[in-house]
Structure formats: C-alpha cells, structure tokens
Amino acid sequence: MQVTKKQYYSPEEYLALEEAADYKSEYIDGEIIPLTGKSTNHNQIAGNFSAALNFAFKTQDYEVFILDVRLWIPEARIYTYPNVMIVAGELEYFNNRTDTITNPKVIIEVSSDSTEGYDREGKFEFYRTIPSFEEYLLIDQTKIYVEQYSKTANKRWSFREYDVEDEAIALASVQFEISLGDVYNKVKFTAVAEGETADAT
Asked: How many CA atoms lie within 13 A of 84 on its CB side?
C-alpha cells in the first residue's frame, strides 16, 4: 500500500487497504497515515510493561493487548494502534472484527521526539472521548520519565510525573504497580553529550 498524496478514504476503504498492506497505518477522519518504524527502545519498553501486566493479571478479569490490536474511536473517526491497552471485563469488538476493539480502560504509549506532542495532546484528546477510558501513561524512551493521567470525575483528570527519583509507578484505575527499573529494563539510552550509551537499571 503506497500513500503518496493526501487523499480521503472511507473507513471501509482504509480497512481493505490495511488488510493488504505490508505495514500498519492509522486512519484519522478520512486520511491514512503510515506508522513509522519503532526503535529497539520503544519495543523493549512496551514489551517490559505488557509482560509485567500479563503476569499480574493472570487471575484477574483484565486483558492486555500490545501493538497489533487496533482501536476504533468513533467520535473522532480514528483507527489507531496504541502500544499497550488494558481492557476490563468483556471485550467490545467493532463490527464483530476481532482485530479491532472499542473499550480500553488504560492506554500506554511509548513516545519519541517526533510523536511526543501528538501523543500528549492530540491522541490524549481523542482517547478521552472513549467512555471506558480512565488512565493514560506516556513513557519517554530517551530517558527515565513517565507522565500519568488518571480520570477522577467527568471531564476531570489528575496528573503525575515520574523520573529517576521515583521507584515505581502505581496505576490508579487497576491494582498494579511496576518499578521504573522494570519498565526500562535492558533499555539503552544515548548519552548525547558524551557520545556514549548506558544501560538503564
């Protein structure tokens, strides 16, 4: 699938193209936007978090999805692929498609320099239109830094940030805690000033 010029597609056209494509794309109100390649840090962080969630939820009524499961946001007319999603209870599939859900409780995104602004503002705004959505984590892949947004009431959200001085992240909407060391396990940060790399611990 090649998208070389700005063109508007129906959701049905997007899904047909997506099924035949060699790479994933987002659909934003008629426009198809190819997803850029993920870094090793991005992959490692998403994998670390999802592995810890799956282990913690073995006997609980939560399901964890990573990277390949699509999310449909009807109010914004968006199909997207969050890095990690937590669903409580029964899955709600869109149009009986088992590759597309509509009811995440928690969404976790690993940001990069190119996506940070959109992840924090654009995506978060769209995610807030989802009735089941209660918590958002934005994880930096270039340093130890996490932003947490938790719903406290209708149209009200609390904010907390975590950095190297903190030991663990506690989710507010589900009973789960993970150390920052586990989030960033085996992640390598580039020391720009020194031109070296260092392992996160």
From this structure: 28
